[in-house]
Amino acid sequence: MRRLDQYQAQQGFLTIAQNSSDVDYLRMAYAQAMSIKLTMPGSLYAVVVDKSTAEQVLDQHRQVFDYVIELDEDDSANDSWKFRNEWKVSFLTPFRETIKVESDLIFTRSIAHWWHAFRLRDVVLSVGCRDYLQRKSNRRDYRKIFDDNQLPDVYNGLMYFRYTPTSAEFFWIARIIFQNWEHIRDNHLVNCRDPYPSTDVVYALTAKLLGPEQCTLPSMDFINFVHMKAKINSFREQIPWHELVVAETDLPMVRINNINQYHPLHYFDKDWLTDDIVKEYEHALRI
Amino acid sequence: MINTNKSNVSEKSKGFLLFAYNTVETDYVKIAEQCARLATHTTGLPVSLVTDSDTVTDYPFDHVITKENKLKNYKVGELGAWRNGGRYNAYDVTPYDETIVIDADYFVIDKNLLKLLEQDFDYRIMQKNNLPGGHWNLSMGMVGLPYVWATVIIFRKTKKSEMLFDLVKRVQRNYEYYRRLYHMREGNFRNDYAFTIANLILNGYDLNETQGIPWNMLTFAGVIKSIEVHNNLLKIREDKNAYVIPKQDVHVMDKGFLLSKNCQQMVDQLCDA
């Protein structure tokens, strides 16, 4: 499926933004792209969109979207969780080396030096996550499936891949799992009842099949991000984290409960990204 | 703002600084006298006292520095009342180039603090605290941050240290604001919290422990019946527990014990050893 003209640049960031009925992922991708341009000037950014989301791409978005790539087919058209297209990033990326990120993740400082670490593997999944105190989390509240199935503790919120046979194999396995999710869930996973394939589980299973040593860098324990899911931070789930504690922006820095977020921030709760914050990014980049 | 002056230059003066303000029920100056006696015996360093003008002491402190403390008294459980404001004055009033500020209820029994003074730094604060049964892992509030222990602070006269104490002063002056911002559980002023906030701000709003004293403090928070010295061991008896530990610095919070004859005997024993 790779086209000869697929690769148009050496390296860059990529996300998938498929708007759903209640979540504007394109807006989050826009904020993400601005955070990348602000912290790592000169970095390239690509966004993969479905047809209806593509129609919502505005001129202001294109100031930070270097590539807007439209999906030919949307495997998630009937899903409320739109994960089934994830495996396609390998075939759609315009970059020879790609850092693929979830759209609700922003950068508060440059991670340009991470590229050098990533190059030790063809595919790198981030392992574990951090709480807002920047400490590696040992909470397992959201990882029961992983523990029950002895899957590696990987997160797809931030990953790296480049065009090699190993990465091709990784995405080939992932594709099979995505496309046969119900069968694999019911016959090969324990205590898994997810109606849709979550990318974290699919990539963890893929990593297990391919060999975690092929797609993780355990010694590089800085390759992960802050995850703002409530229990990871010992917060109550009933209250959004940004209502529970002070969240300030001094862009590109974000300060949560008086702690600067030096690691990439997976803010998770979409309501945190207010129009004021988007405007603050636009102001910083003179958009 | 790392201090570039070598700490082992002989003309640098070094010493302990104690803050002690008596309350209606506790003679903190008396406690400070025992603390000073032991600190000087163990390290050979002089000890100065910061107190208010009402205080009378016969102990030969290196300096007795008068600083009024208007903070009200507070009482928490069995620990007794205290008047702990004004610790930020340490930077201005210390007569030493290199100062070790300790609480009057901290007994200097080993020479680790002296060794630390051989290192190059602006300031160091006690970061971790152990109870004999395990870690004392507490935060300032339910969603509050972990805090440092102002029980032991070592500082040199540098710009960064000055900023630390200035920030502590600002926090104390605007404590109600910071109390809410940092989700503090208690309403009363705590030096630990003020230094935590100042240290956090000064280090880029980051919980890094680079300014921490690189070992855990050992605290006895309960009622102490006795502490005995046996060779290189301390035998510490509480109401229901007893501990035998190697001779080391201990933080004893039971004011009743600190003012008891047994405490005086313990200090005598350690000083005679």
List keywords for this structure.
heterodimer; A: 287 residues; Spore Coat Polysaccharide Biosynthesis Protein SpsA, Chain A; six-stranded mixed β-sheet; globular; B: 273 residues; 8 helices
Query: How are helices and strands ordered from N to C of chain A?
Result: EHEHHEHEEHEHEHHHHEHEEEEH
Query: And the CATH topology of chain B?
Result: Spore Coat Polysaccharide Biosynthesis Protein SpsA, Chain A
Main structural class of chain B: alpha/beta
CATH class of chain A, named Alpha Beta
- Overall domain count of chain B: 1
Strand order in space, largest sheet of chain A = 3-2-1-4-7-6
- Secondary structure tally, helices of chain A: 12
Q: Give the ordered list of helices and strands of chain B.
A: EHEEEEHEEHEEEHHHEEEEEHH
Give the CA-CA distance, first to last residue of chain A: 36 Å
- Pick out the low-confidence regions of chain A: none
Beta content of chain B? 25-35%
Q: Helix count of chain B, per DSSP?
A: 8
Q: What amount of the residues of chain A lies in strands? A: 15-25%
**How many strand units of chain A?**
12
Biggest β-sheet description of chain B: 10 strands, mixed
